[in-house]
Amino acid sequence: MAAERPDLRREKFIRMTTAPVQKLVLRLSLPTIASMLVTALYNMADTYFVSSIGGYEGTCAIAAVSVSLSVMALIQALGFFVGQGASNFISRALGRKDVEKASEMAATGLFLALLIGGAVAVLGELYTAPIARFLGADEEFVGPASDYLRWIFAAAPLMTGSFCLNNQLRFQGNALYGMVGVVSGALLNIGLDPLFIRGFGMGAEGASLATAISQGVGFCILLGGTFRGDNLRIHPSRVRVTWENLGYILQGGLPSLLRQGCGSVAVLILNQTAGSIGEADPAIGRAALIAAFGLVSKVMMMANNVVIGLGQGYQPVCGFNYGAGQYSRVRQAFWFLVRVIACWCALMVLLGELFAPRVVSLFRDAEPRVRELAAVILRCQCAACFVNCWVVPSNMTQQTMGWMFSASLLAMARQGLFLIPMVLLLPRFYGLTGLELAQPVSDLCTFCLAIPLQARVLRHLQQPDRELAP
After folding, report:
1. Residue 230: how many CA atoms within 13 Å on its side-chain side?
2. Integer Cα distance of 394 and 402 in angstroms
3. Cα-to-chain-centroid distance, residue 354
4. pLDDT tens track for 89-118
5. What's the confidence (pLDDT) of residue 160?
């Protein structure tokens, strides 16, 4: 059953292990960059159309969407945990030509993703309002936040399943199929946002309903993509929830879970701290400061998703060639990725520092105080984004190779080991300025940690290549 289209798979193996790595990385990156940018665009569309409500009501709606980001991050973390865990193993197994085991892992991964998403949906629907308050919503906007979260929780199984399927398609070297599913859902979301938010007068709830519908459509398209071309066919009979398979998923997915799980916690603490600072200063306001950080997070998502898309295009190249013992090709691909991301980050630093006020002015209906705060925060975060040219390639290399400890440590460093303490400590001494500087300081600390961790990996990759099996 597992050997559908063997000729196509043989051709892919030859291509992934012999074609120039620079062309491979770029070719596989373009669909992932497109899907990541469109995803960021529709996330930004939620905030944009919600901000168009205008005035104080619009600020509360933006704040409601902002406090919900940690739940979105948690759902994504769980989907990526299973998806990356299964997919890292799949790419190495295909590099070893073990198609049977790769097919088993693909089915098992999707089953676990849907199961975990279902558990999140049940718990979220039972405790929506308490969760909204825990995330930082006060009586000003707990209503819109609860309305927004309700549909997000309902769509949780489809979201975790989509993240899992997208990763599996990408790690098989078929990112185009994943892009079609993600982009289709995202474009539908962008089209439904103004209809539900303004046309039906649903406000923040309309934004989340549009997201839920688009996630359902995207999931169906992604699932259909697994039955096309040389992709691994997913069938319930191949599900094997064994300790061995769970161990492989944990090994490959724990870094993603820690990275995005820490990000979810960091957003929670950031919103709570921002709310306290804003509440203490009537000239700022609790909702306004939370909304400002929310706007910046959506803008930075656009820039960072290009970096992530490049890294995701590199991962199947890394996985296939590491599994096949072609260590020199892994090294070549890594250094090429570092150079490309460095160029992109340099451009982002320049544009962010020069045009931050113009960027946030795109949210023209947001209150002026929200845009003023967001411009300062955006400049601070852009200043340190250059470190991504080393941190992201290093983390993705370690995760794809199965180096669980160093990959997990680096994955949780930026948002967990460093950002959370900085958010808690710096505002005590420097107030709002300290909160604005928390992210760039944590970025620099993560860069310092990544240097020795990746140096060890590069030494390991100096070993001679294995001869390719016929």
Report:
1. 17
2. 13
3. 27
4. 887 787 777 788 888 888 898 899 999 999
5. 92
Q: How far is it, in rounded angstroms, from Cα 160 to Cα 113?
A: 5
> Strand, coil or helix: what is 19?
coil
| Tokens standing for residue 53 | 């409500």
Cβ atoms of 397 and 330 closer than 8 Å:
yes
Residue 2's pLDDT band (cuts 50, 70, 90): very low
CA angle 324–329–334, rounded 5-degree value: 120
Please report where in the chains the tokens 């962010």 appear, as a residue: 352
Structure letter (DSSP) for residue 2: T
Alpha-carbon distance of 398 to 253, in angstroms, equals 11
For tokens 């923040």, name the residue: 204
What is the value of pTM for the model shown? 0.71
Residue 70 scores a pLDDT above 90: no
What one-character-per-residue DSSP string does 22-78 give? HHHHHHHHHHHHHHHHHHHHHHHHHHHHHHTT-HHHHHHHHHHHHHTHHHHHHHHHH
3-state SS assignment for residue 203: coil
Two structure tokens written together for 72: 């979105």
Give the chain's mean pLDDT.
Answer: 83
Longest dimension (CA), the chain: 71
Helix H or strand E segment including 431: helix 420-460
CA distance 194 to 203: 10
- In the structure encoding, which two tokens stand for residue 68, read together? 């919900």
Cα–Cα dist 22/30, whole Å: 12
